[in-house]
Amino acid sequence: MPSSLRHFIVWPMIVGSVTAHCAAQPSASLMRINGLTSAETPTVEGRILVTAQDGGLLLEDRSGRIHQLRAGEFQSTEETGQEFVHLNTEELAASLLRQTGGAFQIRQTDHYVLCSSATELYTEYVAQLLEKTHNEFRRFMESLQVPLKDSAAPLPVIVFGDSDRFLEFAGRQHPETSFADVPGYYSLRHNQMLITAPSGMKDYRSRSDVLRELKRRPRQVETVVHEAVHQLAFNTGVQVRYADNPMWLSEGLAVYFESANGRSATLWNRPGEPNRIHLPGAQTCITNEERFQLSLTDLVRTDAAFLSADTAASAYAESWALVHYLTEKQPKALGQLLKELGQRTPLIAVSPESRVTSLTSAAQQTLSELETQVVRHIKRMRGPR
Q1: What is the dihedral of CA 306, 248, 50, 111, to 10 degrees?
Q2: pLDDT attached to residue 57
Q3: Rounded CA gap, 187 and 227, in Å?
Q4: In the chain, what is the straight-line distance between the N-terminal and C-terminal CA atoms, in Å?
Q5: Which residue, of 40, 78, 231, 265, has the fewest CB within 10 Å?
Q6: CATH of region 3-7+88-242
Q7: Can you name the CATH fold of 28-83?
Q8: What's the CA gap between 341 and 238, in Å, rounded?
Q9: Could you tell me where in the chain the CATH 3.40.30.160 domains are found?
Q10: Which residues are registered as beta bridge partners of 195?
């Protein structure tokens, strides 16, 4: 996979196929799960999101981490007599410091708790960029008339001053995933965003030094925005964690937002700028027959194209192109699709046919007709200035 694509959401592996009983809302009670056989501690407390027919559980603890427990991996459940509430700002800060250890400090903003071992200058830059992304995300969703929930708790972000510490922490958090050449990611399981500072950042003495260096590394800026959009989507009701979220829409939305712009104080201005990677990538994917090399049918029906090194670049580029087209030309359709995402149920698969129907019904076009329009839209676009 090209290094330009190596920022991503860490999608958890869903164990088996689960037929689940799901209440309309997660449990409001704080439950205690005893006798865990495959966890760091023998007990865990949280709210039950899903109870499967075979007795398995999907449980969210107070830090926001989701635990997927098979039947037989725990002995019993019991009521604590308390209401489930997420960790407050102070509790979350303490939890992050316990996870990261020494040399990390807390920086709080209106909507985030940053736990950082990077320089104060870089941490402050990331904090400002996160808040700007938060505000633009809400403005964007409001323009599409997509209802948003207020986040139940501050959003946790860990900023690493060096890549070695980042790789060590990421490897412990997700040992099944390679993080080589990855400047950051959003962990769907832990509901945490992790970012590493560029090498050499400790040598800079002013904000202008930091901005000058980041102008040379737009990918660093874009990674913060990209992962922040993932985290925001899953914490405002736009998407549901552990539901069947089509990657073309999840990743298309994030790459639609990400493009850096050196003309603003945060080096990022707003969503929808021509993407320096994916616009030429999408244009390259157009065949002589005015179609995409990776058809929209193959992109939309399943996530397979994102999981193959041979097609991942095309999948990201065409997802960006599709979301850009829908935003510019069919915003009502995009709003409908995002509203449907927020109604998904954890662990319940959506068939390939249903994925296609959701898009064609919203756009009121066949996939072939839609592909023709997206190709025309992208061919007319010019790259970033």
Answers
A1: 110
A2: 93
A3: 9
A4: 26
A5: 40
A6: 3.40.30.160
A7: SH3 type barrels. (2.30.30)
A8: 6
A9: 3-7+88-242
A10: 159, 184
Is residue 191 within 8 Å of 233, Cβ to Cβ?
A: no
Q: 3-state DSSP call for residue 258?
A: helix
Phi/psi at 352 (nearest 5 deg)?
A: -55, -40
| 3-class secondary-structure state, position 341 | helix
Asked if residues 256 and 35 have their Cβ atoms less than 8 Å apart, the reply is no
CA distance linking residue 381 with residue 351, whole number of Å: 33
- Map tokens 């398995």 to a residue: 56
Summarised one tens digit per residue, pLDDT across range 59-92 is 999 999 999 999 889 999 999 999 999 999 999 9
The span from the CA of 352 to the CA of 375, in Å, is 23
Residue type present at position 232: L
Residue with tokens 């603003």: 264
DSSP 8-state code for residue 155: E
Structure tokens given for 369: 């007709």
Percent helix, strand, coil in the chain, to 5, is 45, 15, 40
Q: Apex CA 15: angle with CA 14 and CA 16, to 5°?
A: 110
- List average pLDDT for each run of 10 residues in the chain, which is 385 residues long: 47 46 65 86 93 91 95 92 96 97 94 97 97 98 97 94 92 89 94 91 82 92 98 98 97 97 88 94 93 96 96 97 98 99 94 98 98 96 79
Predicted pLDDT of residue 96: 98
pLDDT recorded at residue 4: 42
Query: Phi and psi dihedrals of 264, rounded to 5?
Result: -115, 165
Q: Report d(CA 92, CA 97) in Å as an integer.
A: 9
For 353, the enclosing helix (H) or strand (E) is helix 352-363
What does the block give as tokens for 221?
């800026």
CA 299 to chain CA mean position, Å: 19
**Rounded to an integer, what distance in angstroms lies between the CA atom of residue 146 and that of residue 13?**
28
Q: Which residue matches tokens 């157009």?
A: 286
